[in-house]
Amino acid sequence: MVTVQFPFLPPGHKPMRPTLVIIMSNTHHETSRGVLYTIGAFFIWGLFPLYWKPLHQVPALQIMCHRVVWSALFVTFILLWQRNWAWLGKALREPRRVAIFALSSLLLSGNWLIYIWAVNAGHVVESSLGYFINPLVNVLLGRIFLHERLNRVQTTAVALAAVGVAWITLNSGALPWIALSLAGTFGSYGLLRKKAPLPSLEGLALETYLLTPLALGLLLWFQWQGNGAFGHQAFGKDALLMGAGVVTAVPLLMFASGARRLKLATVGLIQYLAPTLVLALGVWLYGEPFDQAHAIGFALIWLALALYSGHGLLSYWKERQLQRA
Q1: What is the pLDDT of residues 253-262, one digit of tens each?
Q2: Residue 119 in contact with residue 52, Cβ under 8 Å?
Q3: Which ranges of the chain would DSSP assign to H, the alpha helix?
Q4: What's the pLDDT band for 4 if we cut at 50, 70, 90?
Q5: Where are the domains of the chain?
Q6: For the whole model, what pTM was predicted?
């Protein structure tokens, strides 16, 4: 609070000390920070192909295992710095929570594996499709497993997306299994995380801790067989493998910090930045095909997303109007 006083008086007036009270709120500042953090997170995710492509000679399974191990190590350093360990003992004493996170960690690692393989095998465009349709897959999973009702707009959006995928399938002669697998694994992962919620950092820590024994065992086996990439290539590539933990955790923490400062509708719009960047990289940097059939299929999916997002914004606006009334 800032108090501004005006001691001067017009002629003939009695002495008075009018006070202007200005209440300064940090709400706008917090929202701005939230937007910056959230855009930064999705921007980093959108540039992930630039990180994985230089490792195209390393098998995707090895890259994924390194990502798990180095992520576990990185989040451990953060938790040590925060002295934040009380949650772990409590979580491990709940068998149901551990079982859910064990399954969610498998889905997450599967998603990572498919994405890394797809990028390095020249399927960047199809990878972007997976994350474009992910919000609509979430709606469908909510209907199937949580019995959430779909209104007309949501039903139309899901149907349009299905038509778009079918169009791409018919014209390419193959089901876009990469896109469907990415959307399916990530959507299922989100569904499971609703059943046993933990904050982003703690959740990533528990998932990577559960996966690390298997990932580390595989890496040691690859090394023993003479097929391990680490230590047998240029230092720059080893550094990229080691840095996988940082590039995994940092955008996740940025997203968590940004999302809690923003309305869900705002986050819902910003999320399309990542697949848009991935699509742009696939078409313009890596020269992957994007013909008329792709354009029509993607256009149908974008129309579905516009309906879905527009309906969400309209519902949010109406709710705010009712609250103000």
Answers
A1: 898 888 778 7
A2: yes
A3: 27-46, 48-52, 60-82, 86-92, 95-120, 124-145, 152-172, 177-195, 200-224, 235-259, 264-270, 273-280, 292-324
A4: very low
A5: 39-310
A6: 0.85
